[in-house]
Amino acid sequence: MSAQVTHHEIEQFLFEEAYLLDERRFDDWLALLSDDVRYWMPTRRVVAKSRPDTQTTVREELAGEAELGWFEDTKLSLLARVLRLKGGITWSEDPPSRTRRIVSNVHVRAADQPDEYHVRSYFLLHRTRHLRERESFIGSRNDLLRNTKDGIRIAAREIILDEAVLDSPNLSVFF
């Protein structure tokens, strides 16, 4: 059993992860993922209020577990994506995206397992490519972080974009 981690340590972990991705240090980023990681981005739909006195929750707008998402990766499929990036066989990343990730509003609560934490954060991911191609992704992430003997690891990540329709040519970046 590992020692408990503080809110500050979890924030620093998320900031370091963002730095690694922005610096394209994908192997170092993969090392932050647990072997059983689930990396999931559900699609989002626009749901009209069924009655004037009701409010639709965010969860009701998201694709369910049995529905398709923008992606659902395991560590093996994330490794394959990284190998494609490193091997130069991804036209969507030629030239590579220049990214900047901003992580904020980090909220931490203990999970059922003593060494695990549910972490919610907001993010802004800004990407530029070529001379004028630019776009931003804004949303939140629900992470399950696990404190291991090797440090904090991401055991699960759910990425929730604010947009229901993406105005992006691809989703070749990591969130």
How are helices and strands ordered from N to C? HHEHEHEEEE
Q: Sheet with the most strands?
A: 6 strands, mixed
User: What is the first-to-last residue Cα distance?
Assistant: 29 Å
What global shape is seen? Answer: globular
> What order do the strands of the largest sheet run in, or round the barrel if closed?
2-1-6-5-4-3
Helix content: 10-25%
SS element count, helices: 4
Characterization of the model:
With 175 residues, the protein is of the alpha+beta class. It has helices spanning 7-22, 26-30, 58-61, 75-87, and strands spanning 33-42, 69-73, 98-110, 116-129, 133-148, 151-161. A six-stranded mixed beta sheet has the order 2-1-6-5-4-3. The longest helix is centred in the first third of the chain and has 16 residues, at 7-22. The chain starts with 6 loop residues before the first helix and ends in a 14-residue tail after the last strand.
